[in-house]
Design goal:
Elements (H helix, E strand, L loop, with lengths): L2 H5 L7 H46 L4 H38 L20
Helix pairs in contact: 2-3
Length: 122
């Protein structure tokens, strides 16, 4: 084995590149699926928080002082959960759209995101 044979580029040495491309596709798909699952869990947690607020108000009454303190924190938490879930859904749908163009699958009719620069984001 000479020094030139180590540097020489042959198709046999580039096989790892094809496998790397496949592995990165799989990793991106796993990340998108994880983001979709996380957004669903966050929104379900927001609904659970809403149920907890309603049951507390039914037990304590609407105009009591503990209800006011509880509502000031609980409603803010619930709104935060819904907003985080919404942002995750938007990122997951944009990722799915860009991934489908990479995989040569036509995106759904309601996804029309071509690039972030065309939308004036960057």
């Amino acid at each position: 084995m000479t020094a030139e044979s180590l540097v020489e580029d042959t198709p046999e040495k580039r096989v790892w590149l094809k496998h790397l491309y496949f592995i990165t596709r799989i990793l991106v798909i796993i990340a998108i699926i994880g983001m979709i699952i996380t957004s669903i869990v966050v929104i379900i947690t927001g609904f659970a928080e809403l149920v907890r607020i309603i049951t507390f108000l039914l037990e304590e009454g609407i105009f009591s002082e503990p209800a006011g303190r509880f509502l000031s924190v609980a409603v803010t938490e619930m709104i935060d959960l819904y907003l985080i879930g919404l942002v995750l859904i938007i990122f997951a749908s944009a990722s799915t759209s860009s991934l489908s163009t990479v995989l040569s699958i036509s995106p759904s009719g309601w996804i029309s995101l071509h690039s972030m620069s065309s939308r004036g984001v960057f």
